[in-house]
Specification:
- This protein has helices at residues 3-16, 19-27, 51-63, 129-137, 143-146, 179-189, 238-246; strands at 41-50, 70-73, 97-101, 104-107, 120-126, 153-159, 169-177, 201-202, 229-234, 251-254, 260-265.
- The strands form two sheets. Strands 1, 2, 3, 4, 5, 10 and 11 form a seven-stranded antiparallel beta sheet that branches. Strands 6-7-9-8 form a four-stranded antiparallel beta sheet.
- Helices cover 25% and strands 24% of the residues.
- Helix 1 (3-16) runs antiparallel to helix 2.
- It has seven helices and eleven strands.
- Belongs to the D-glutamate cyclase family.
Length: 272
């Protein structure tokens, strides 16, 4: 399949909502943000680690449920996670990956089949794209979707609870909102604890260690109007900062903003 055909398939998936078709488009080579793709379906962040580090990372996620809510986990050496989707192959079905060695980013492939090993465990972590559907349904605008860019994400001075070698700063995603929309967004997203829940901070980015709101550490900058405040949610990119800090010999994550589209439905996440 050509990249042009893959792109058409990706946009067809976006229009008709089939999460499986969205994954097939990624498998065919399309690499772009999945924000707004396959509305209604849960998307996930990815962290893949050797089995020797898996237990400690699992504990890290348990201790830090806001940035790292686990929604799926593979068996050792198995790239398939049937609970998350039909024919879901973790090696091929994300738009782009990041390969880490000793805490350094060394490669950003669109397929990790050549990197897969029999000792690897894949963790899929809840993504804020899921609660964005609920915000849009309540007529709350999402700026990065409007601008067709990746959500801006920032490393903060908020420390995560440590587990084994895993420790470090929380990463947050940001959406600029008018104050009345920010209040409503807190109410709505608090119903979705499995995909980060309510914001961790509103306004004053410097107080959580963000020196320049126009220069995100991951993703793309977005416009903030004078009558808007930045609203920050815990982000599933946090494992990337933690894995880098731990200098794990080998790990694979997703490229920020380019997520795994699952067959699970967002509507099943709400707790109220």
């Amino acid at each position: 399949m050509t990249v042009f055909a893959a792109e058409q398939q990706f946009h067809d998936a976006e229009a008709s909502l089939p999460s499986h078709q969205a994954r097939l488009a990624c498998r065919a080579g399309l690499a772009q943000t999945t924000a707004g793709v396959a509305p209604g379906y849960i998307q996930g962040n990815l962290a893949i680690l050797p089995e020797t580090y898996a237990a400690a990372f699992h504990r890290f996620c348990q201790l830090n449920p806001k940035p790292c809510p686990i929604i799926g986990m593979s068996d050792v050496g198995d790239p398939m996670i049937p609970s998350l989707g039909t024919d879901l192959d973790i090696r091929t079905d994300l738009p782009r990956y990041r390969v880490w060695r000793d805490g350094e980013l060394v490669e950003e492939p669109t397929d990790i089949t050549a990197h897969w090993r029999d000792d690897l465990v894949a963790f899929v972590i809840g993504c804020s794209f899921s609660f964005e559907e609920a915000l849009l349904a309540d007529d709350i605008p999402i700026r990065h979707i409007e601008q067709k860019v990746r959500v801006p994400m920032y490393r903060t001075n908020i420390s995560c609870a440590a587990a084994g070698p895993f420790a470090g700063p929380m990463v947050v995603s940001m959406r600029p909102l008018k104050p009345k929309d920010a209040i409503r967004a807190v109410q709505i997203t608090s119903r979705f604890p499995s995909v980060h829940g309510a914001p961790v901070h509103l306004g004053l980015p410097q107080s959580i260690g963000i020196a320049d709101i126009d220069k995100p550490d991951y993703g793309d900058p977005v416009r903030i109007e004078p009558d808007e405040v930045p609203v920050f949610w815990a982000c599933g990119v946090t494992p990337q900062a933690v894995i880098a800090a731990a200098k794990v010999p080998f790990a694979i994550t997703h490229a920020p903003g380019l997520m795994l589209v699952t067959d699970l439905k967002n509507k099943h996440l709400a707790v109220l």
